[in-house]
Amino acid sequence: MFVFHVVNSGLSTFPPLASPIGFFLASASEYGVELFFCISGYVIAGTLRRAASPASFFEDRAIRIYPVLWATVLTITALGLASRTHGFADETLSHLLIEVPINLLALPGILPLDNIHPAAWSLSYEMAFYLFCTACWAMRRRVGSAAAWIAVPVATVLIIVYPRGAFLLAGVLVAEGWPRNGCLLRLTRHPLPLILLFLLCWRTIRAMSHPDSIISTTMLDWSSDMRLPLGVLSFVLAGLGFTGVVGGYGAFGRTLRSRPLQYLGTISYSFYLWHPIVMSGIKTALLQAGVLQAVGMWAQLLFFVAALPPALAVSDASQRVLERRLAVWLRRRLHHPPPMQPAALDPPPPHSLERA
C-alpha cells in the first residue's frame, strides 16, 4: 500500500513508470490488501481453535482492531478540522457526532457510509468476518453440524456481494490444508510469480470495472464479462501463492522470513493505518517547500525516501503502545487472557510438497 500511495501521488516520475502500462503495473500494489485478508483468514482459523468461547474470541479481535483504528480516525478528524481540508471544510458538529462513532466502529466499507480513514474500509470486512465466525461458533454450540446449512449459504451470498472478502476464505482454506492436489502443490514452490499474476488479474478486474471500484461491484456484475473467470483465477492464484509464502518456498518465501521483513510484519497493522497520515504530512511539507517541484522526475523517489522512515517510526511506536501495552492492559481489566498466537506464519499443516 505504501508503494501504491507513492505511485498514485500525482508527482513526477521516470517516463517508464509514467506510461499507461507502467502505471497500470505499479498500481497493482494497491491490491496487497487482499493478501492481508489471506493472512487474516489463516490466523483466525487457528485463533478460533484456541479461544475459550465465541464472546472471548470476538472480544480479543475487538481489542486487536479498535485501539489503532480509533487513534488514526481521531487523528485524521483533528487534523482535518484544524486545517479545514480533506472534506472537513464544511463539517458540522451534528454530522461529526454521527460520522465519527460510525467510523470508530469500522462500519464504512461493508456499509455504504462515509469513510474518514481511506484505508479503514478493509477493517469493516475484518470485523464482519469476525462477527460471522462468532455467530457460526455460537450456532454450532446450539444446533451442532446443522449450523453449516445456515453458514454456507450466508457465506456464499456475502462473497458474491463483497468479492474481496473471498480472500479471507482463501486464508482459512490454506490453514485447513488446502490445496492437497499434488500438481497444485508443486506450483506453490514458486509463490512470487503466482502473487504477481494474482495482482495483475485483480488489477485487470479493476480496470474493466471503471469508473466503479471493486468495492462497489459484485460478482453478479462480473457475470456478464471476463471479470468473473478472472475473479476465480485470482482467488486460486492468491491461495496458491499464499500457500507457498506460508511454507517458505522459493527465494521470495525465504526472504519474507528474514528478520527485517518479520519486523515489518509485526508492525504491519499499525503501518497500514498510520502511513497514509504520515505520507500526507510529508508530501504537504515537501510541496510547500518547493522541493518536489525542483527535483523533477525524481519527485516520487524522493517522496518515498522522505516518507518511509517517519512512517516506520510512528508505526513502531503505535505497535508498542497501542497493540501491545494497551491491549495487555485491556485484557487484564476484562480478565481475558490473550489467545496463544502462532509464529508469524507457521508452515501449512496436513500436507507437504515432499509428499506431492
Give a brief outline of the structure.
The protein is mainly α and 356 residues long. It contains 18 helices and no strands.
Would you mind describing this structure in some detail?
There is one protein chain. The protein is mainly α and 356 residues long. It has one domain (2-355). Helices cover 70% and strands 0% of the residues. It has helices spanning 2-7, 15-18, 20-26, 32-50, 54-83, 93-104, 121-143, 148-161, 166-175, 182-187, 191-209, 219-222, 227-247, 250-256, 259-266, 268-288, 291-294, 299-333. Helix 4 packs parallel to helix 7 (121-143) and helix 5 crosses helix 18 (299-333). It is globular. The two termini are 35 Å apart.
Question: What sequence of helices (H) and strands (E) makes up the elements?
Answer: HHHHHHHHHHHHHHHHHH
* Category from helices, strands and their pairing: mainly alpha
Mean pLDDT across all amino acids: 89
Strand fraction equals under 5%
What can be said about the biggest beta sheet? none
Number of domains: 1
Q: Approximately how much helix is present in the residues?
A: over 70%
Shape: globular
Show unreliable segments.
340-344, 348-356
Total number of helices = 18
Computed over alpha carbons, the radius of gyration is 21 Å
Topology, number of strands: 0
Intertermini distance: 35 Å
